[in-house]
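User: Design a sequence. Structure:
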């Protein structure tokens, strides 16, 4: 049996808050990121994405950013997005990613606060936190899903500068975890 590499990314940038409240959807920069992921993870990339998972959007339009972020990529790759898993079901997302048994690899796109929980549910024991100010980081977990690697930036032209872990530092460790 082959085991996919699981790549994890955050959704694209959000629109500005209105009256202190988050707005649904992606900002113009988030839309640009969504389009740019076609280059980052598309047909001619080294990632070989064959399965995409994004948190379940609500009918009201909230929690739709992860789905909206990967939709252009899914369309380019002719893939259906698994959007059946609730935002807070980190174990469900991890189980779905590990259960993929086809060719190629898995891309998980989620809200940044839950990405760390998904990584832990995959089996990574070192606590990490996705940096709140970043939208471009690619994480990778390979079988046996015990170690998280920071691949680097999505390098979306026009919004990300070329970055790698050596330039940006090590994975941020969650020092609040017990």
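Assistant: Done.
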């Amino acid at each position: 049996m082959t085991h996919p590499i699981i790549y994890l990314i955050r959704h694209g940038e959000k629109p500005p808050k209105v009256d202190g409240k988050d707005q649904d959807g992606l900002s113009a920069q988030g839309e640009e990121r969504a389009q740019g992921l076609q280059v980052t993870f598309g047909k001619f990339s080294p990632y070989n994405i064959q399965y995409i998972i994004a948190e379940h959007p609500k009918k009201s339009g909230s929690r739709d950013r992860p789905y909206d972020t990967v939709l252009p990529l899914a369309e380019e790759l002719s893939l259906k997005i698994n959007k059946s898993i609730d935002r807070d079901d980190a174990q469900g997302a991890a189980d779905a990613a590990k259960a993929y048994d086809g060719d190629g690899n898995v891309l998980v796109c989620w809200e940044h606060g839950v990405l760390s929980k998904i990584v832990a549910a995959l089996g990574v024991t070192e606590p990490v936190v996705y940096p709140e100010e970043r939208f471009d980081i690619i994480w990778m977990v390979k079988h046996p899903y015990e170690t998280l690697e920071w691949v680097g930036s999505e390098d979306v032209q026009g919004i990300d500068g070329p970055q790698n872990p050596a330039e940006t530092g090590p994975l941020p460790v969650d020092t609040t975890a017990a």
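The chain has a mean pLDDT of 89. The beta strands are 6-10, 49-54, 81-82, 105-110, 137-141, 148-153.
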